Amino acid sequence: MISSRRFQQNAFAAAAATNRTVGPGAGSGLQGLFYLGGARNSSGFTTGSTSDVLITNVAFSFTLSRASFVAWSANDTGKTSGATGTYAYVSVYTDGSTDGLIHLIDKGVGGYTMGSVFTFATLAPLAAGLHTIDMRAHVDSGQTYLSYSTGFGIYLVSP
């Protein structure tokens, strides 16, 4: 039993010695998240567009000094209504390309509903340089989307 415990301790020590990070979890292989910024609109936003439109005041630009992984946490609280159509859609965009739908709003559900997600913005690191993350919305024909609150936070994943 002592030899197996010593073997485990030596294995952990060897792993820690080859994986030195700075800050919390140093040497443990754990990565940290560092808040870069974000944006929020809690004053309301309405659209009847069937193409994605930028949600007012929900965009944030940042510069990376080197290629890095970035994560974001986004949320939306809204509702949709109209005589025809069924849904409203809220998505996150990175550098002008969609990173995915975060909220599908169904007019059949009374009142406001909330959608949220925490995810890596991409599966590969973003290149060094200027980047913009924003949120956009569109509806089925005949629907009107009303946002109560929409926003996100952006996090740098430590190397």
List its salient traits:
single chain; 159 residues; mainly beta; Jelly Rolls; 2 domains; 5-stranded antiparallel β-sheet; 4-stranded antiparallel β-sheet; 1 helix; 11% helix; elongated; disordered N terminus
Summary of the model, kept short:
The chain is mainly beta. Helices cover 11% and strands 55% of the residues. The strands form 2 sheets. Strands 1, 2, 4, 7 and 9 form a 5-stranded antiparallel sheet that branches. The chain has a 4-stranded antiparallel sheet with strand order 3-8-5-6, with no helix packed on it.
Structural notes for this entry:
By secondary structure, the chain is mainly beta. It folds into 2 domains: 1-30; 31-157, Jelly Rolls (Sandwich). It is 11% helix and 55% strand. Strands 1, 2, 4, 7 and 9 form a 5-stranded antiparallel β-sheet that branches. Strands 3-8-5-6 form a 4-stranded antiparallel β-sheet, with no helix packed on it. The longest helix has 17 residues, at 2-18. The two termini are 37 Å apart. The model is unreliable at 1-28 (pLDDT under 50).
